[in-house]
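=== RUN LOG ===
request id: a7f3
mode: sequence -> structure
chains: 1
length: 353
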Amino acid sequence: MTELNALKTKFNEYLDWNQARIDFLARFILAIIPAQSVNLTRIAQKFPGTAQVASHYKRIQRFLKEFPLDFTFLSRLITTILPLEETWILCMDRTNWKLGRTDINILFLAVAYRGAAVPLFWMTLGKAGNSNTHERIVLVRRFLETFGVEKIRFLTADREFIGRQWIRFLKDNKIRFRIRIRNNTQIRSARGGQFMAARLIVRGLRIGHATVLNTTREVWGMQLYVAAARLANDYVIVITDFDPDHALDDYLRRWEIETLFGCLKSRGFNLEETHLTHPERIDKLLALVTLAFCWSYVTGLARHEKKPIRLKKHGRLAKSIFRKGLEFLDNVISNITCKTPEFYWALNFLSCT
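=== RESULT ===
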């Protein structure tokens, strides 16, 4: 199968793996895209080759159980595929679901890219509930060791990702941030006055309006800028260490990681269909899914630029960029004998050229 060999050649450009592992990776990517599921049986059924489905299934299991995957190298591969700018917007968030009585809970650090976020580092927490400061710091340190702080334009995160130790870590490491805080977070009032709940400081805002406090305020013992907007039933209050006038707009880039979660789950690879519960195996599966997601997304962008997706009356795309790419690749892979030119066209997007 020349297309399989072409994909293997592409991966050989980046990965210092033995040929059996490269062969597995190429077959897995060519299987998971038409399967559109992380269910290992469905993927095995789509595996290229003449072996029995049971043999493919066992091969997938062996990879997830035994192969020591270099996640740092994979992150570098992802940033090679994506034509990123010089500095990157990082998004941190968590997604979770239950498999029987087991909580599957994954913390992500992703780079925002043209409407979606692409995972660079992640950690299956092996517990229910919020991440803690140590877990967040571990992910960020992996990024710093791999790419350096100079690559970070800013980090954005929601109200889970707060606290004195966490914000101090970001400041000490010169990581700029746009982070939403809870309405009851204690902020010192102007001119060194009393501490009060954040919502009380901005309670004069009218619905639909926004403001930036005119001076830095003390939050968790640090002088930070505060920007806020009032919604119909809530406030969006964001702390930052730089350029507060753009803090609210920048914070909204966090939604790109929500788009990612939709692509990994119900709108794409149905991540919740996995029956894996071992954290290391889930992490390896996510690495493979991330590669398939990247290929689908950059292909979707190219297809959209070639033939723009129709807009609905409310102004949104009739189909997401990701679905555009995923469906195109699915069609090409499933009809490879008559779609060879289209396959090689899409293969070009597995390298940033």
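=== NOTES ===
The longest helix spans residues 279-306.
The first strand starts at residue 88 and ends at 99.
=== END ===
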